[in-house]
Design a protein that fits this description.
Blueprint: E1 3-16, E2 19-32, E3 35-40, H1 47-54, E4 62-67, E5 70-71, H2 77-87, E6 88-91, H3 103-113, H4 118-131, H5 147-159, E7 165-169, H6 177-193, E8 197-201, E9 213-218, E10 221-223
Parallel strand pairs: 3-8, 3-9, 6-7, 7-8
Antiparallel strand pairs: 1-2, 1-4, 4-5, 9-10
Helix pairs in contact: 3-4, 5-6
The protein binds adenosine-5'-diphosphate (ADP) and magnesium ion.
Length: about 220
């Protein structure tokens, strides 16, 4: 079994006045392909810091992150932005769609940035929109979509470049219960079908049955309760 995401002894400190505060303390994690891991923990426990480091958006103070077996420490800015585009998908609490692009164009833009040929990008966008139940919204602008629809576009966008690893930071926080469940069901299905590794930070107990494992961030480490 392949672990598409591996974190080894990740430590992160922040300066707080004159003091150094340890937010992550030799944190280890391995996520297998096809596995969706939920991460819970109180506000301020370091969940977003952890996700940012795992997603190559923030450098750890020490430790190593491997995406699809490839170490990210030591890469320069250009290499990191390439890696994020090719290997990592993000879904945030709000969909962050571009207001002046139609649904389909939001997806094709991401492919274009990664240098994918146009016809292939169009085909992939079509397939993903079908899978998200959004085919009929293909030519809609974000302002015409419901919150749930927007979040489904954000999921399709995150999967557009066929990433190895998917990160979601409270993807259901702005949705009602049933839409939230739908969104996580769709994430889980894509992760299974396409053998991704995925980590989702959530406060939403109702979506936990859809996850393979639940971990808590406590005292800078991920633990099982
Ligand atoms: P969570 O997502 O679990 O609420 P965060 O990872 O956002 O937690 O933050 C964890 C702690 O680290 C908080 O106390 C926060 O104030 C602190 N922190 C986060 N980012 C920074 C930063 N850039 N500089 C200083 N402190 C930070
Ligand atoms: Mg957070």
């Amino acid at each position: 079994m392949t672990n598409r995401l591996v974190l080894q002894a990740i430590t992160r400190t922040f300066q707080d006045g004159g003091n150094e505060r340890m937010i992550l303390d030799k944190l280890d994690l391995e996520v297998a392909e096809g596995e969706l891991v939920a991460v819970m923990g109180p506000s301020g426990s370091g969940k977003s810091t952890f996700l940012s480091i795992a997603g190559a958006l923030l450098e750890p103070t020490s430790g190593q992150v491997l995406i699809d077996g490839e170490a990210i420490q030591g890469k320069d800015m250009q290499e990191l932005s390439e890696l994020r585009l090719q290997k990592i998908g993000f879904i945030f609490q709000s969909a962050n769609l571009i207001p002046y692009l139609k649904v389909e164009e939001q997806l094709i833009l991401i492919s274009k940035l990664a240098g994918t040929e146009k016809a292939r990008a169009g085909q992939r966008a079509k397939t993903l929109l079908d899978q998200m139940g959004l085919s009929h919204r293909r030519n809609a602008y974000p302002e015409k979509l419901s919150g749930g629809e927007r979040q489904r576009v954000a999921i399709a966008r995150a999967f557009m470049n066929d990433p190895a690893v998917l990160f979601a930071d409270e993807p259901t926080a702005s949705l009602d219960a049933s839409r939230g469940l739908d969104v996580v069901r769709m994430i889980a299905k894509q992760v299974k079908d396409q053998r991704k590794s995925a980590v989702m930070v959530t406060h939403d107990d109702r979506v936990l049955p859809l996850c393979d494992r639940v971990l808590w961030l406590e005292n800078g480490k991920l633990i099982t309760k």
